[in-house]
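Dear support,

I submitted the protein below through the web form. The confirmation email said the job was done, but the results page showed an empty box. After a refresh the structure appeared. I'm attaching both so you can tell me whether what I see now is the final result or a partial one.
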Amino acid sequence: MRNFYFLLSRLAWRQRKLGRFLPPPLSLPDPPPAPLQSIYPPPRKMVQDVEMKDQATPPNSISSAVPPEIQQTAAVVASLKDIVALIETGAYAKEVRRIARAVRLTVALRKKLTSSVINAFLDFALGPSSEARARLAAYVGKDDEHGMEVDTATSGGQGSSKHLLPEIEVYCHLLVLIFLIDQKQFKQAKAFSSATIARLKNLNRRTVDVLASRLYFYYSYSYEVTGDLALIRGNLLALHRIATLRHDELGQETLLNLLLRNYLHYNLYDQAEKLRSKAPRFEAHSNQQFCRYLFYLGKIRTIQLEYTDAKEALLQAARKAPVSARGFRIQCNKWAVLVRLLLGEIPERTIFMQRGMEKALRPYFELTNAVRIGDLELFRTVAEKFATTFNTDRTHNLIVRLRHNVIRTGLRNISISYSRISLVDVAKKLRLDSANPVADAENIVAKAIRDGAIDATLDHANGWMVSKETGDIYSTNEPQMAFNSRIAFCLNMHNEAVRALRFPPNTHKEKESAEKRRERQQQEQELAKHIAEEEDDDF
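What the results page shows now:
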């Protein structure tokens, strides 16, 4: 410790000694005062005072010189290239779901299709010098004013088309057919669709089924628009037979709906029911096709007076339909409203107030109001006012059937309001416009009593209708029946939701392999144990 303090004192003495011999600091003269301009920062130059130097154009600014039409066309062609890549992946992997996704992506690009886009895409997918490209380009036509620039920019990286997949060729046919229909070129679309269907008959690939189903739909649509729907009925039946033999279930669904639409278009309800009853049924693969089937089934059941089944089918079709399919949902609601009125029910007001449907359902709302009140004169006025709409919707025959329901509803209101009323007053309140209204009123009251619509008796001697006292509805079986129908509806919805669940592919095979592996291990353990026991016995 003493040595440590000695070293510290020695170090301090050495520093003092060195500091005694250091030279004195230099004394510099004071700097002159700075001018006034250097004290303050210089003013910033304006934008116009800045000198622009010649610089090279950056690569990102090249696209700004291209017109927006060409940019949009190039973007659409790039999207179509991605769709082709998706189709190619699905074709090699045999995944139908990828091709269905490609069809959905194509629908999103439908409004952006032009002749330049189609030609540029055909050059990329089929090759500029291929025979299929020349055949399809004859229907598309020439490019617009920016077509050549787009073609040269987008079709340079296409390889050889010797190993062209059938899925890509069919997709090109679908794209051209959609373009012709959107351009209102229905005659060309009809000829082109016929040639495409002839090409499809030679293809038997499950990955083509999704594209083929869309081509079947547009094939029928092009003939329907031109008024020649009856000409392809035999061809549709042949296609349905081919799809059944090839186990093309999606094609069977689509073609069955097209055939039902073909028959119903010409009011051939008996033939449609025979086809529907004999056609093979299986689990639905497409929600859109299943909704169409339910709608056609509801129309057939309505014409055949099976209103309960028709109501269930139409309401299920309207519930399952996509929100974007507004026209289809409107048609389902129109027929469902009429069927419920024919059943004696009054639809809820919210049905007519759905978003985007108020104007289309307005005639049926006024018709429902007339039926609810039971006013025969108001019903006749509404039927005459919207006769054109009802004829266009092909529901005029159903509205003629409603006249009896209007009379029955008015008679029910009268029986509730009066304990006893004469048949003359009944005829006046119902506004019967016949030669002998009292006799007609007597027949109507007798039929309503027999059908159970009203709880009353008929006094023929005095010409009275005597109503019975209304009892407690909860003492009857009606609440139980209503509750039972609601429970059945909920159970049916649950079963449909379970059936619509999707599971990973080959799940059952994995479960079977695991079970077999477990059985094999158990057998091996038993065999090893048995061998060990035998060795012990031998020992």
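Response: this is the final, complete result; the empty box was a page-load delay. The domain at 418-469 is CATH 1.10.10.10 (Arc Repressor Mutant, subunit A).
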